[in-house]
Structure formats: C-alpha cells, structure tokens
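Practice problem 4.
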C-alpha cells in the first residue's frame, strides 16, 4: 500500500557567532576633506577641538559619539577636526565647539555640548534641517519625522534623476509657497497648502507605499497619504490639487473616502487605522456611516485614523464579502469588528480596547495569505472559537503577543477549517510559524507560553530546516522557484511513524514497505545534521530548504530509499543520487541545478504528477546505459530553455516499464502531453530545431493527437469521453472535456466501436452536427454512474438543462473523495428521477469560480449555487436535502426588494417590472399569487420581475394607490392601467411595451411629477385623430437623439393638460426646463427643425440655476464659434467642496449671463481631463473660436474673484484690473515692457477702496 511521505524544504544553517557591534566613532577629517563634505552634502555637523579646551574635549567627544548613529539615520554627516586656522574662518575662537552646515551655511551651536540629547535635537529638528526656497532631499528617517510632526507635507518620490519639466514644476510650487509667506507657517490664505515640501529617492519606500511608478507626488494630510494622478509637468494643476486637498482637510468632520492605492499606502504608513468598508447606496452602510461620523474626532484624539472605502477590489483582498464591515489595522495587522456598527459607543469602546489591549488579532483567510506574502515573520494560531481548549490556549498566548511584537513577529489567529486543511492541519489549536512564506509547525505544549515564545524566537534567530506537512509542501512547490526537500524516515513512535506503519502491507512492492525501524530514523537525523550546515548557502542562492517525514508523499514521487533529497525547480522534481553525508557535494549539486540547463531526470510517479500539474509537458523516454540515447539528450538540452519560454516543461525518464505502458518499443522516444493527452513525435530526435518546431506547433495549433493502441486503451479507461477521428472541431471538443485523437489501430476500432470501414467516426456527420452530437447532454450521459465534467461542461449543464444540477467538486487521487463518490453513486438514480442532474467535477478553476473548498456538494438552480453543509458520506441525509431544495425552488416567488437595491435595479437593468404594494392592501396576496405564474415567462422574455413595499419610492413616481405595476425601461417608468388579476394581460402588456420603440405614454399624475423632477422634458400633447398620428411618426424619429442630449420625451392624451399649457387644438409640443415651459411654433412635420429647437443652447438654458449638461450637449456648445460659456466640472461622488463651490457660482450666474457668458455644469471626469483638469471641482472658460479654453486657478469659494476673472478673460480691455499671482504674475512681468502691479492684502481695510479708484484709470 502506498504510504504518504513528507517533503522538507531546507533553509537552516549552523548558528553563527554573534559579532559585537563596533563602537560609533566620529570620523576625523582635514581642512580639504571638510570643504569637500560641505560642498557635497546638505547637512554636515563639525566638532571643533584643539590642544587647549575650555572644557574636556575628550569627555564631550565621548558624549557626542553616542548620537553619531542617530545623526547618520537623518542624513547628517558628523565629523571632527583639529584645525585652528579653519576654525577661525568660521568664527570659532574657543574649543570645543559645534558648527552645523546646512546647505553650506554654518550655524553655531550655543547650547550645552555635554547634553547629547539637546545636540541631537538641534541637528535633527525639522526647523534646523529645512532648506529655504528649495526642495530638500530627505531619507526615510527624516520623512517619517516630518510626516509625524507636520500636518501638511508634499513629497516627491523621484527616481535617481528627476525629469527637468517636473523638477521645474516642483520648484515653482515651492517658490509660490514662499512668496505667499506660508512655507514655514500655515495661514488662512488659500495658498497655504503645505508646511513642508521635500523630495526623496528611495524606491524601496515607494514600493512599501504601493507607488507603481516614479516620479510621484504624495500629499500627506495629517499623516494620511493622497497620491496625485495628474500631469506633474503642469504646475498650475499641481498647485490647484494641493490647495484643494488642503481645503478638504480643513473641512467638516466627515470620515475621509480613500481609494485602494491610498488605503494600501495608509496601512503601510499609519500605525493605528480604522477602515470602514461600505457600499454606495446601501441603507446599512449609510446608517453605519451616520453613526460612526460621531466618533471620528474621538478616534483622532486617541491617534486612530478613521477612513472609509467603497473599493470592491480592496475589500476582496481582505476577504470582506458583507457590507458594511469595520477593520482595525494596528501596525499593518488587521482585526475585524463583529458587533453592531450602528452603536457608535460600542464601536469606540472596541477600538480603544484594541489600541490599549494585547489581544491576538483575528484574520480572514485572505488577510492571512496577504500577511504571509508580505511579512517576514508570522505566527498563526489555527483555533476553534467554540472549543474550550482553544480558548484556554488563547488566554496563555495573549501573554506573549507583546514579546512577539518586540521581536518583529506578527502574531494572528484564524478560525477557518478550510484554511487549516490547506496546510494539512487536522486538529485545533495548532501553531504555525511562517518565515518568508515557509511554514513550520510547533509540536510542543501550547499551554506553556514561555516555551512557545522561546521556540518562536529560536525560529527567528537560528536558521534551521523547517518541518512541513505534505499540504504545506504542495503549496511551496506551487509557489517557489527553487526548493530543496529532504525526505526523512519517520521517528519511531511519532505520529508520522504511526500513520505510515498503519498503512504498510507486506505485499507492497516498495522497499519502503519494510518494517519501520529506529536504525533508518537515526540515519535520517545524521543526514539532517549535515544538511543544516549548508542551509545558509542555499538561502544565498535563492534555494528554500525544508524537510518532511511522510512516507506516503515519498511513494507518490517514486522515492524508494529514505532519507532522500529532492530538488524542485518551477515544480519539476530532481532526485539527488549522491552521498547525503557529504554536505559540500550536496551543495555543489544544488547550485548546479539552479544554474544549469539540464533536462531533469524523473521517476514514473514524478512524471505522473508533472503531467497532472502542467498543461504542456515533453518527456523523453531513454536508456541511460545507451550512448546513442545520451548523445541525443545532449542535442535536446539545447532547446530546454526555449521550451521553458514557450511554457513547455521538458523532462527525461529511464523506465522501460513506463515506456511500454505508452506503447513505446524503441528508445529514445519523445512524447508530448497536452492537458494529460499524449502525442508521439515521429521525426529525427537529433535535429533539435525540428523537435522544437514540432513541440511549439503542438502547443500553439489545434492538432488532434496521434496515439498508440496502448495510449488509446488508457484514454478510454481514464476519461469519461473520448472521440477518435480527425476533424476541425478539436478545440471545441476540448472545451467540453472530450479528448479527440486519431489511431491506426483498426483492430481496436472493430472490437470497441464495430467500425468496418476506414477512416471513420461514429455517427460522422457535418462538422457542426458532429460537435452538437458530441456535446449533447444525452450523448454525454454515462449509464449507472455520475458523469465527470469540466468547468465548461458544468456551465453548459447549468445554463441549458431544464433540470436542476447538483455537482460534486473533488480532487483526483483523494481517498476521502473516492469514499464519498462511492456513497453518492447510490443516490444518482433517485436524483435523476426527481429531475436533478448529478455530475462530478475535479476542475480546480471551476471550484475556484464557485468559491468552494473541495470536496463539496453544490446545488444549482437558475445558476445560483447553494453549498451542502452536512455529512457528505451520509447519502440519505444528502438526498433528503436535495429533495427539499428541489421543492423550495419549485415554489418560485417574486423577489422582494427595497430602497437602494430597488434604485440600483432601476438604474442598471434595461427591462424591469415592479409590483408596488403595501400592508393595507387586502387583495395583494391574491394578485401576487397570480403574478407568480408569469415570473418565469417574464425572465424568458428578458424582463426582471420584483415586488416592493417601498411606498416612498412609489410616491416619488407619483403613485399613491396600491397595488400598482410599473414597467421601467432605461430607468423610464410606465404604469400599467389594466386588470392586475389577469396575469396574462400583465405579461402581454410588459412584453409589448418592451418590444415597442414608440414615445412613452404617460398619464396626468406622471406628467406633473416629471415636470417637477426632470431638467429637460419634451411633451407631445395629442388627441385621437389622423393629424396627431401623422405628427407622432415624425416625433418618434428624433426620440432617441433627444435622449442623448438628456431630454426626456413623452406623449399624453389629455385635452385639459394640453389646454393648460397653451394648446387649445392639439397636437402640440411643449418643452419644460426645470418646470418652466416654452411652446414649439415651427413645423411639427419637420423633425430636424424640432430637434434643433430642443437642443439649441439658448432654449436649454435654465433660469435661476446653472444647468446640468451631458457630453452631447457640451459638444453642441463647443460648436458655436460666437459663444462664450463657462463650465463647472464637478462630481457627485466623493467631492466635499463641489456642492459648496456650486452654491457660490449660482450667485454670479445671472451677472455672467448678462455679460454674455453662459454658465453650465457637467459631471464628467474623463471630459475634464481632456481639457487639462485633473482635480475637481474646477471652472473652465471656453472663448468662442479660440482653440484653447482657460482654467481658473484662484479660490473657487470667492465668487467675486471668479466673476472678475470671467469678465477680464472675455474682455481684457474692460475696467477691471486683472488678478495675477505666482508663476502667472512672473510670466507677465517677463513678457511685458512695462507693467504696474498693485500688491494688496485681504485683511487691509483700505485696499478695496484704493482698488476701486485704480480701476478708473485702468
């Protein structure tokens, strides 16, 4: 019997002697060296000493040398010099003394030189290190300090050299800031956007902050990073963005919304961070946010930053599937809150408890994967929250959490059985330590926290080869490029020994089947001692080293002697056949494997694993004692690298029995496997170029594999579906899991398929007919067994089958799965009789798609999966559950929705029917029972059917009586006026409306509601006569085009309403703009004239409000060459300033209009970017036939300044003095022969009066 064996990754070495840290010594320099240092470095500290010192120079030097390392971290060069002449040059007459050169300018230290802390503060304080009027370059340590101490910091993360245009922009920003007198201290002026502007060249730090490309500008607002995504060469845009973000930070106490990139940067840089993952337009999220806003300030006071994000990718990366969810990050370690998010006091208490307590954080499986990938040292307790032993262990281990933190070990816990199984953990609690992703299981007593801590510290400090389970080994093989695994014999009496001994049988062919003895185990231990001497060297060559003592795993790889060393390169194993006691020889072999291009030699079991794991495999069957075979291999070695580049794994195997199984009689022979299907090469193996060409062709093209009769026998035995013949439908049959091959074995054809004439394909028809026949459900059905399907076939069953589908997801060669399958076969017929299709699927991608952990049973109805939670081996309970699921879905009910969910459906679904009802409705249940009968038919027609008791939503549509059925098409509502108890009439009406392209018919309440709610509404008033019908045809020609301009087009047959709006003798057309209407007086039979009238900017202009336009309307405005118009670019999402700025602009709309400048607004970030706007909100003036619009760069909250700017831009000769500042002013000075500049200040009382006088002489 085969016995599982455990592979081991070796990453251990003998502990090296600890080296004493060299004492920090301040370097001695001469005069010339000092001059060079001052010239080359921004920060240089110089200790002057001489023969005659006022106080003991040596004593002072001893004190200062204690801070030398600290100054180094801040980029300060600290030197000492004995040069009286040079000292005199810098004003030093008494010794000892300290001078600080900052950007070549000397500053003398006047404090106590014996107080090293004061000296360090002097040298590293932000004020001392600031370089005026230039962007200073800082290192990571300085940046941390600046961000920690300053509220607003702008940082350029730059490559080695900063592009000239960007550097010029950054200098301009600094210059503008300096001119506004806000570089050192913040004022209330809008140009006070930063208390510090620095640059840093540190790619490692940029990676840590998840900055994908350099250069990048990051703005830290109260330590929260915000990344600039605009063009860094446009200085005005950069400054506007900085001003906007500073202003936003000064605003009210809303929790800040962040993107995924910002969130990752904050998690990396902020020690204590609370993140609310929420969904837009979700009632629960909105309720939680409303409460949590109340504790934002309290969190700030305690140093906890609070942010929110609706980024689904960010949530998914942390395993968050339900919203809202609160996650607290402490030094990058996440912890999920599981209480009531609407109880702000409880949330605040929990956050404070997390801040002050020493609890081990609870994480999801995705969080754990992220931590293992990103952190060097991670300790994970797999536990069961409901298990008393787990709780007792947790109490003990909480005592060492702080010690782990101090030693850079991240300690977390996880209650997830599926994740535990992935690492081969069968019992909880279990502690696993991960070092650079390599796991090691603790096998001591978890109740003894001191021993646990000692073991963890030993793992960190001492290099040793980690012990892994077979599941851990599989994970490492999949994810590690170079892996060495020592396979050891289990120790007598160990768990692995017991497991191995219980499965060994005397008749087993493997030498491992002999009785397990202490002698073999001792040899394994001796080998391990030797191998641990080369663990460090393996690390240096990028080889991960582990160990495993699982004989079943050894047998799976064809290993017959223990101990054995196996090397894996990109999942391909190679066995070492030398002396394991010779560590130098072993190391040389491993290093050679990393650097050489040899084709790996494998066993038959390894070959099976490689074929199973890799879609494209080339295997050379050879005889290592045959010189000709060896010469052929030398040629093939030349194409090994090229095969790697094409994704083809190349191996060799010396095994006659395995060759015979594939019908190979002559050696050497090359066999290519694609998705486990073999194909034999019949050309010249000594022509490596021809071999490579053939292999690439096999991979890239859709050839049907040529097989031997032995291979065909195996295919028929191993695969549920095999098609034998040649046709051009090979790709399609592959996608449905059908193996398509050719064979010359006519004997097999006659005996197995009854074929007498050749070539032949059973039921051969046209290409399309053959494919249809092959993939038909009846053809695929296998009698008396559960059919095996791949992901594509399963999707076909789910989509096409009229039955419900139940799928058993499993892994091949899993004994537990085989046992479950044996039980499931007993109920296959029962499910078939009940109309349930039963299939099995070993496709890992399909399992991942439906988010199931194998083995698992999943029931599908209408493509919706439901996972069975019971005992998979209890077929009676499973059958009972399946019958219940079948009965449940048979009683189809119309889906109940409300609030945000209903609004989302109205916005996103093309065709939707909503049944509105309320609690007072007596006959609603009876009507619903009738309507349930047409739910499926509506689905078939592509119409989604839902019900709701959201009467507020109904009333917003002008619906006040219930029940009512409303049809929505592209968010436009149409009310059903027929009999609701006649479900067929409702269905026929909905389908008719869906298929009808005519203008929407409305009633009086709907008209009144639309007039109030729609910005632009065109209403065709008609009566039942021939003229109305004729005109209607012309109206319907422009209905869709009007919609593109944001104009809602409706029709109404209501004489009273027509008369009210001026049409005594319909038909007539009225145009409502924000409730105010105008009549069309032109030709109703000229559709082009009507469309021009509706879309004329003058007609679309709204009074008393800045009109909202779309892109189509914007294009119409731009076409007019005689027209000035100002565009307010904004966004309704995540823009706190937009609404406030809009309110200011509404105040000047009329005055701008009187001056011939129309004001409009548009929510379109992409369009804004086309005109150079990268930060919203923004105001842009379009000046008729002038090609380039002008962007307003001033204070958007100062309506008077904006109006002045608009008037000046429209008419530069007007009686208004133009306002300029910063680079714009400098540019005007540079290009003007003569210019008068009036400098003034907002706080100056007389300045405004003087300005009015000066404008009289402008």
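Answer key:
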């Amino acid at each position: 019997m085969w016995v599982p064996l455990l592979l081991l990754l070796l990453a251990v070495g003998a502990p090296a002697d600890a080296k004493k840290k060299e004492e920090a010594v301040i370097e001695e320099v001469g005069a010339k060296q000092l001059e060079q240092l001052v010239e080359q470095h921004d920060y240089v500290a110089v200790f002057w000493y001489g023969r005659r010192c006022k106080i003991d120079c040596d004593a002072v030097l001893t004190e200062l040398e204690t801070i030398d390392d600290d100054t180094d971290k801040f980029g300060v060069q600290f030197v000492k010099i004995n040069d009286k002449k040079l000292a005199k040059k810098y004003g030093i007459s008494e010794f000892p003394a300290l001078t600080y050169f900052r950007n070549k300018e000397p500053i003398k230290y006047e404090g106590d030189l014996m107080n090293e802390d004061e000296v360090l503060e002097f040298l590293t304080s932000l004020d001392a290190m600031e370089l005026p009027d230039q962007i200073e370059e800082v290192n990571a340590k300085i940046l941390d300090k600046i961000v920690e101490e300053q509220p607003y910091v702008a940082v350029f993360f730059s490559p080695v050299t900063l592009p000239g245009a960007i550097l010029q922009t950054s200098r301009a920003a600094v210059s503008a800031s300096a001119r506004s007198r806000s570089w050192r201290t913040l004022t209330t002026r809008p140009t006070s956007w930063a208390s510090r502007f620095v640059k840093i060249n540190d790619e490692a730090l940029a990676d840590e902050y998840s900055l994908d490309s350099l250069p990048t500008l990051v703005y830290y607002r109260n330590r929260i990073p915000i990344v600039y995504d605009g063009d860094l060469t446009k200085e005005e845009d950069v400054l506007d963005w900085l001003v906007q973000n500073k202003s936003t930070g000064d605003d009210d106490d809303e929790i800040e919304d962040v993107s995924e990139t910002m969130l990752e940067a904050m998690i990396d840089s902020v020690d204590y961070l609370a993140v609310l993952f929420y969904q837009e337009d979700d009632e629960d999220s909105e309720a939680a946010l409303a409460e949590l806003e109340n504790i934002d300030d309290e969190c700030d006071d305690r140093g906890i930053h609070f942010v929110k994000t609706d980024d689904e990718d960010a949530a998914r990366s942390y395993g968050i599937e339900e919203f809202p969810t609160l996650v607290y990050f402490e030094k990058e370690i996440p912890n999920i809150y599981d209480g009531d998010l609407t109880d702000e006091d409880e949330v605040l208490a929990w956050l404070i408890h997390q801040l002050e307590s020493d609890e081990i954080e609870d994480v999801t499986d995705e969080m754990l994967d992220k931590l293992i990938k990103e952190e060097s040292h991670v300790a994970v307790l797999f536990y069961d929250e409901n298990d008393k032993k787990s709780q007792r262990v947790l109490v003990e281990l909480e005592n060492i959490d702080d010690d782990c933190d101090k030693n850079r070990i991240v300690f977390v816990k996880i209650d997830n059985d599926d994740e535990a199984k992935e690492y081969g953990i069968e019992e909880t609690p279990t502690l696993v330590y991960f070092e650079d992703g390599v796991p090691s299981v603790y096998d001591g007593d978890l109740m003894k926290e001191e021993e646990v801590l000692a073991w963890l510290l030993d793992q960190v400090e001492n290099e040793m080869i980690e012990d892994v389970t077979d599941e851990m080994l599989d994970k490492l093989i999949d994810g590690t490029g170079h892996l060495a695994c020592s396979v050891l014999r289990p120790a007598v009496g160990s768990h692995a020994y017991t497991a191995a001994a219980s499965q060994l049988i005397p008749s087993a062919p493997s030498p491992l089947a002999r009785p397990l003895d202490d002698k073999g185990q001792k040899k394994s231990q001796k080998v391990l001692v030797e191998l641990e001497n080369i663990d460090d060297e393996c690390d240096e060559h990028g080889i991960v080293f582990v160990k495993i003592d699982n004989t079943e795993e050894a047998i799976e790889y064809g290993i017959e002697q223990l101990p054995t060393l196996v090397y894996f390169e990109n999942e391909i194993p190679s066995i070492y056949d030398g002396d394991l006691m010779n560590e130098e020889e072993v190391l040389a072999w491993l290093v050679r494997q990393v650097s050489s291009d040899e084709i790996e030699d494998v066993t038959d079991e390894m070959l099976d694993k490689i074929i199973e794991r890799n879609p494209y495999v080339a295997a050379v069957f050879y005889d290592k004692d045959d010189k000709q075979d060896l010469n052929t291999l030398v040629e093939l070695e030349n194409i090994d690298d090229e095969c790697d580049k094409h994704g083809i794994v190349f191996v060799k195997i010396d095994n006659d029995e395995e060759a015979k199984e594939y019908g190979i009689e002559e050696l050497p022979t090359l066999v290519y496997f694609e998705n486990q299907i073999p194909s034999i090469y019949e050309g010249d193996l000594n022509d490596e170029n021809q071999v490579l060409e053939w292999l690439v062709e096999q991979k890239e093209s859709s050839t049907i594999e040529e097989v031997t009769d032995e291979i065909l026998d195996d295919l028929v035995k191993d695969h549920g579906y095999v098609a034998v013949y040649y046709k051009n439908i090979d790709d399609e049959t592959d996608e449905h899991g059908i193996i398509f091959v050719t064979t010359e074995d006519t004997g097999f054809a006659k005996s197995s398929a009854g074929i007498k004439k050749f070539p032949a394909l059973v039921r051969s028809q046209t290409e399309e007919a053959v494919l249809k026949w092959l993939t038909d459900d009846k053809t695929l059905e296998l009698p008396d067994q559960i059919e095996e399907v791949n992901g594509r076939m399963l999707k076909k069953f789910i989509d096409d089958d009229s039955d419900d589908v139940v799928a058993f997801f499993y892994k091949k060669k899993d004994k537990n799965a085989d046992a479950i399958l044996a039980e499931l076969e007993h109920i296959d017929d029962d499910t078939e009789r009940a109309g349930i299709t039963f299939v099995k699927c070993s496709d890992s991608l399909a399992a991942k798609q439906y988010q199931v952990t194998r083995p698992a049973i999943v029931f599908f109805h209408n493509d919706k999966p439901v996972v069975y939670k019971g005992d998979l081996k209890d077929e009676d309970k499973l059958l009972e559950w399946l019958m219940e699921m079948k009965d449940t879905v048979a009683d189809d009910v119309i889906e109940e929705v409300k609030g945000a969910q209903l609004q989302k459906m109205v916005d996103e679904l093309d065709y939707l029917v909503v049944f509105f009802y309320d609690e007072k409705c007596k006959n609603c249940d009876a009507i619903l029972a009738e309507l349930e009968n047409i739910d499926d038919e509506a689905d078939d027609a592509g119409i989604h059917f839902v019900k709701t008791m959201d009467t507020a939503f109904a009333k917003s549509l002008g619906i006040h009586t219930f029940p009512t059925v409303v049809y929505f098409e592209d968010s436009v509502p149409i009310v059903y006026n027929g009999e609701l108890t006649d479900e067929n009439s409702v269905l026929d009406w909905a389908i008719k409306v869906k298929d009808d392209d005519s203008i929407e018919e409305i009633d009086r309440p709907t008209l009144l509601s639309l007039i109030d709610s729609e910005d632009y509404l065109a209403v065709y008033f008609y009566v039942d006569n021939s003229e109305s019908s004729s005109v209607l045809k012309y109206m319907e020609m422009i209905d869709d085009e009007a919609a593109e301009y944001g104009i809602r087009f409706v029709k109404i047959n209501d004489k009273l309403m027509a008369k009210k709006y001026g049409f005594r003798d319909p038909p007539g057309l009225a145009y409502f703009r924000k409730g105010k209407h105008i009549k069309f007086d032109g030709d109703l039979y000229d559709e082009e004239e009507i469309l021009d009238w509706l879309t004329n900017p003058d007609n679309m202009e709204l009074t008393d409000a800045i009109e909202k336009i779309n892109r189509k309307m914007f294009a119409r405005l731009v076409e007019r060459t005689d027209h000035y118009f100002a565009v307010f670019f904004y966004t309704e999402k995540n823009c706190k300033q937009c609404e406030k700025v809009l309110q200011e602009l509404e105040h000047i709309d009329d005055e701008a209009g009187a001056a011939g400048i129309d004001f409009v607004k548009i929510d379109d970030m992409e369009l804004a970017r086309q005109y150079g706007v990268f930060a919203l909100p923004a105001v842009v003036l379009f000046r008729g036939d002038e090609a380039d619009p002008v962007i307003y760069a001033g204070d958007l909250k100062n309506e008077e300044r904006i109006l002045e700017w608009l008037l000046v831009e429209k008419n530069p000769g007007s009686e208004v003095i133009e306002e300029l500042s910063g680079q714009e002013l400098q540019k005007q000075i540079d290009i003007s022969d003569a210019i008068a500049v009036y400098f003034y200040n907002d706080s100056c009382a007389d300045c405004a009066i003087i300005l009015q006088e000066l404008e009289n002489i402008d």
